[in-house]
Amino acid sequence: MANYYAYARSNYFRVKDVSAFEALCRKWNLEKIAKEDRRVGFLVNSEGGLNTTYCFDPDTGEDVEANFEEELASNLVPGEVAIFMQIGWEKLRYLTGWAWAVNHEGKTVSCNLDEIYKLANTLNPKGEITPCEY
């Protein structure tokens, strides 16, 4: 069985409280990044990528259910949008990639690389298009 590896990061955005954002980064095992204009972002420190529905609770030593998008959205300055992109692979047999964006109201949009197949079919609707995989 091959291992899955992922790389992920965000854009830069403004937050209401940098200390609260730093706490969010610790909770979700993220590396805070910052610009000189007071915008912040994050890098993912786990080779498995970011699980946005579970995080590690150091008090119990277990994973707990949580919602990363909601937590991040609640700290965004009104008008800001955080974008997150993740790419991954398993021995280059399977490539994955997806992105999502969340605004300060908690509204989200997302897309993934597999959407290219639907778009490619518009170029050749009667032809066979093979997937990019092993």
H-E string: EHEEEEHEEEH
Helix content: 10-25%
Strands, count = 8
What's the rounded overall pLDDT mean? Answer: 91
Query: How many domain regions?
Result: 1
Summed up, the helix count is 3
Largest sheet: 4 strands, antiparallel
Give the strand order, joined by hyphens, for the main sheet: 1-6-7-8
- Tertiary shape: globular
Give me the secondary-structure category: alpha+beta
Spans of at least 5 consecutive residues whose pLDDT stays below 50 are: none
Distance between the termini: 14 Å
> In what range is the share of β-strand residues?
35-45%
Rg of Cα set: 17 Å
Describe the structure.
The protein has 134 residues and is α+β, with helices and mostly antiparallel strands. The protein has one domain. Helix content is 17%, strand content 37%. The chain contains three helices and eight strands, in the order βαββββαβββα. It has a four-stranded antiparallel β-sheet. It is globular. The two termini are 14 Å apart. The mean pLDDT is 91.
Structure keywords:
single chain; 134 residues; alpha+beta; four-stranded antiparallel sheet; two-stranded antiparallel sheet; 3 helices; 8 strands; globular
What is the compact description of this entry?
The chain is an alpha+beta fold.
How do the helices and strands line up, and which of them pair or pack?
Layout: E1 4-10, H1 18-27, E2 30-34, E3 40-44, E4 54-57, E5 62-65, H2 68-73, E6 81-90, E7 94-103, E8 108-112, H3 115-121
Antiparallel strand pairs: 1-6, 2-3, 4-5, 6-7, 7-8
